[in-house]
Write a structure and sequence with these properties.
Layout (H helix, E strand, L loop, with lengths): L2 H24 L12 E7 L1 H7 L2 H7 L5 E7 L5 H9 L5 E6 L4 E8 L1 H7 L4 E4 L15 H12 L6 E5 L20 H18 L5 E2 L1 H8 L21 H19 L19 H21 L6
Parallel strand pairs: 1-2, 1-5, 5-6, 6-7
Antiparallel strand pairs: 2-3, 3-4
């Protein structure tokens, strides 16, 4: 082999090694902080992120926790791929909501991802796939890796936890246009999403998973379930038990380990609203959220990052 060919091959190997080292650094993950002065959580997603986070400030207030900053960066139906393209094209199509003092306000109706990522030294950044693609693993990559890199580049806190929300299957009677991808079967869709989440945890450093989907699937087996399976339109969560359950999952997964609390005895149950829950309904939701999380943790891989 000519010296020039050997030199070219050596350079290629060095570049490849540098690239792999850079990718490994970008994909490195970190644990949820314990007893921080302020806990900052950003949900970077779509309407299912909205469903999961909407009642989180109320649960925090009822728990007497007022040092949590929440952010919701939202585009309806946004896929992992679109998040990356929004960033690449420097677009400002997100609605950016924020909660300080446990009250949601609209920061900007036209925000970019970089603006929100740089806005706070986020401790936790929660990602998710769009609902219709959540059970199709091929749609996760390379976009998850790109979002890791974007978050690491712009979030002031370089040790933020990158977490994941495992979303829920559609209602049995759903007319969502992507439901046929799962043979219009709720069970098929749920199992597909669960398998994708399992593979994601195996293939990436993501270890923190909010079990909104598994908790809801178990709740659907109770006598409280109706024809819309705790949704308001066949896929978005109902304003009562559906959203309440998801918020309990977010609390127990992200807030509880940071402050050593639990959602189990939380007193918030949408009092004074048309969606007010009975004490039994609220208790069941809180228990199912805790059971789903602890069940998931008992089978999650334990490997170093």
């Amino acid at each position: 082999m000519k010296k020039s060919s050997i030199l070219a091959l050596l350079i290629l190997c060095l570049l490849s090694a540098a690239c792999n080292k850079n990718t490994s650094s970008q994909l490195r993950n970190f644990p949820i902080p314990v007893q921080p002065d302020t806990l900052r959580i950003l949900g970077w997603g779509n309407s299912f992120t909205d469903d999961g986070m909407q009642y989180l400030p109320d649960l925090l207030e009822a728990a007497g926790i007022r040092n949590v900053v929440l952010g919701r960066l939202y585009i309806g139906g946004c896929t992992l791929e679109r998040h990356c393209r929004e960033y690449r094209d420097a677009l400002s199509n997100y609605i950016y909501y924020k909660s300080r003092g446990n009250h949601w306000v609209t920061v900007s109706p036209q925000s970019s991802a970089t603006e929100a990522l740089k806005d706070e030294p986020w401790d936790i950044i929660v990602l998710q796939q769009a609902s219709g693609l959540s059970g199709i693993y091929e749609t996760y990559h390379p976009w998850v890796e790109e979002l890791f890199a974007i978050a690491r580049k712009y979030c002031p806190n370089k040790k933020a936890t990158i977490a994941w929300q495992q979303t829920w299957a559609y209602a049995r009677t759903s007319t969502h246009p992507e439901f046929p991808n799962y043979k219009c079967s709720q069970d098929t869709m749920f199992r597909a999403i669960a398998e994708c989440c399992r593979r994601l945890v195996e293939d990436t450093p993501i270890r923190v998973v909010i079990p909104s989907g598994p908790a809801l699937q178990e709740l659907r087996k109770t006598a409280f379930c109706d024809s819309l399976d705790f949704t308001r339109d066949g896929y978005h969560l109902s304003y009562g038990m559906g959203r309440y359950l998801a918020a309990c999952c977010w609390f127990e997964t992200l807030v509880a380990p940071a402050f050593g609390v639990t959602v189990r005895d939380n007193s918030f149950r949408l009092q004074g609203t048309p969606e007010e829950l009975s004490e039994l309904q609220a208790l069941v939701c809180r228990e199912y959220a805790c059971m789903a999380l602890h069940s998931a943790q008992s089978v999650s891989p334990d490997k170093g990052d």
